[in-house]
Fold these 4 entries.
Entry 1:
Amino acid sequence: MVSAVALRAQIEASLAQRIPAALSPVPRVQRPTVPTGIPTVDALLGGGLPIAAISEIVGAECSGRTSLALSFLTQITQQERVCAWIDVTDSLEPKSAAACGVDLTRLLWVRCGETLQGRPRKCMARIDATTHGGSVPEPPGTFTPRCYEPVPKIRPSRSAIHRVELLPEKRNVSAQKPGKTIWKRLEQALRTVDLLLHTGGFGAMVLDLGGVAPEYALRVPLASWFRFRQAAERTQTTLVLLTQRACAKSCASVVLQTSYAGRDADGKTLLSGLHFQVELLHRHKIESFLPDAIPRKSPASDHATWSNRMAWAGRR
């Protein structure tokens, strides 16, 4: 009777040309990571956020989730890699990102909102050239700086050479359903993420859903997150979600929850720093077959604190 060892060797020899090591599983190790730039958070995560995976940062407003994401993008852009920020509610402040150290020349900022073909941004600018006695056609691509907000009419002085008037849309802007507006923005954001992930070339990508109510973010199909995870693994892109509640479910490799922990003040009125707390809610044991990766030990605690000092702290 043939032993199990001999039978296994015979099967592997016959399948060696098509399936190398068919019955010998490759040892699995953890994914490589990219540091976030915050030592306590990196120690909590065992090195940083995983590469080619989805990481979700959950928290309320002013809980430090955006600061954590900007600190992570700082590390990526300093490596001369291109990043993307998909802004659903147009809440990113470029000056704050630059103050955190993000290289804006390597950041693609996508501000979600419908274009003129979609008809919501219907506040057009009409430029009348009074010196020529005629009118200039409306320039394509002109729209309001903030979506779905009425823009007041600009009344220039009589001595102005060119007169600019903003013509608001005839229909009532406030009568639009807010849920319909959010769904249109979410649809554009998901399509943008899908396009950029399949295009490749991005070291990291942030999908900012922090301004979207949880009842809308939680209705994003799980198939979308699964497709994003597959594309991130293929293009080696780190996708970071900023949400109020965890919505990626099992597709997220790491889920962090941020919260406000206190503040520092110089004297009684000058704010000098903020303290935040980070809790590791979930760590999915997705492992890649990378022989050069080093297994990391799990942290002793699932909490970490960090501080964000203001730029003017210590100045008089």
Entry 2:
Amino acid sequence: MTVPLTLGLLYFSEPLVRVLFERGAFTAADTHLVAKVQTLFLLHIPFYTLSILLVRLISSLQANHLLMWGAVISLVINIVLNYVLGLWLGVAGIALSTSVVYLVSFCYLFCVTMLIMSRRRTTYEQG
């Protein structure tokens, strides 16, 4: 559900910003910049949604210590990417950084979930 929503918002990003904000002091250049930032930030929606589901699953499997490590990894990546992409792309780079952090976080959570499930399956088969 979030993928079509995200694709729709990506497609209509600039027209949406233009309709809502381009009046008086808000120029066409401002509209383009805000739409670019919004587009890069919207990329995180599917990964964020899936990550929330995986966090709840990991928590219900009583593996919260793994969530702590995911938070540490996300924090470090966020700091580094905010700096690097902020220098390279400006404010749009910070939006892209957020989306990349959610992608990496989702990948970590997915791998951890698969690891937990395989260990539980092995334990169940041996027991």
Entry 3:
Amino acid sequence: MTKDMPYRNEVIRYGVNVFLGDYSQIRQTDNKEVSKFLFGINPYIKYDIKWIGTGFGLHLGNLAYSTGDTHKATSSLPHKSYFQTPVFQQFYFRLGQQKYFFVDLHIADQFPVSSPGLAYQTGIGTGFGLDNGLNLRFGASFLEDAGIYISACLPIENRIVFEPVFLRTGKEER
């Protein structure tokens, strides 16, 4: 839901996401497969004014995601490369005019995902001078090696928002 107050130059977005899905991985050394059923609920709120925006939320449920540490040198074989938790925080911060040019930080906006790169993002964006909330962002994941992303926000009638994301990492298959 969006509450747009143009006379005060502020927008409040709030809502609840519900998600269901499967998480699976295969350990390459012995082909052991781990599979988990994921479910959760994500209440959130975002508050935006002309030059600054902030937001908070919580992911609650049976959550799992990749730890992103497959390149770390260890003396032993790890037992798993995912993290499981019933609660995960969500955070958003923007500085600059979303209509023209801004920088932002996102923690767990596209969560749960198998890639930690989508859980932790920082970038720059533009709204192309439009007032409808549409924007395009480019940035980096600060947990992935050479992780870069492109993301868009495509609002439809203040009720539905499409947010396609493409992430490219420097990881190579081994």
Entry 4:
Amino acid sequence: MSKKATTASRPDEPRSSFGEEAQKAHYDRITAKYEIHYGDPCSLAYRERFINEPMFRGLDLNGREVLEALCGSGMTTQSLLSRGARVTGLDISNEAIASFRRRWPECAVAHTSIIRSDLPSESFDAVVVVGGLHHLQPNVSEAVAEIHRLLRPGGAFCFYEPHTGSLPDLFRRIWYRLDSGFADNEAAIDVDGLKKEFADRFDFAVEDYGGNLSFLFVYNSLVFRIPLAWKRYYSPVLLELEAMIGALQGKLLSCSVVGQWRKKQGPRA
């Protein structure tokens, strides 16, 4: 996909669902804080080791067209560029997409909805979503269907999300209700339900569960209002503990899931 095709100005605001409207307003408010906490060196180290490496396992992204959907200001962009990908950032938030343009002028931009993007079918070799799907409730299935449409046959849908069916999700649900830092429609995704719904359209290549101490206190410092200056002192220890605990914890005790799905070849592709 050419850069020109995705940077054309739009005459009006992107069409959006009710859930997306809530999240658009939410991220227009918090983009600056989000960048600071999720883009600092400690959080980026967590991302590369525990999100990007398993999420891109076995993928050759060199020279490939990759859509970084719900990109925010582009926290996964550098990792994609380092793997040789040609990146297009997609987000519905005005503030987030403006930040993405400033930070990554070499990348294409789509200021639109992932539920109805209006981008050409089968135009990407991979679509990547890091922590975005759970902001789309109750429209996650519609977003995955649109991602399927945008992928070329054999293309990869890579994602990282909080998931249902875990003990941490019970606490997360309470936290979401009590903390004003979350929008009302946020909720963990039902991975098993989505796999049943899309079994005829995707093959499921990677499904890794993890997320414990470092996920909470390094990666999610914004959620817990942890000063950035503190993170550099305890992050190295927690990153190592994350790996040790992660090898044992399993789905029930994990905070998040890394997935890599491949669009099937055939009539529905």
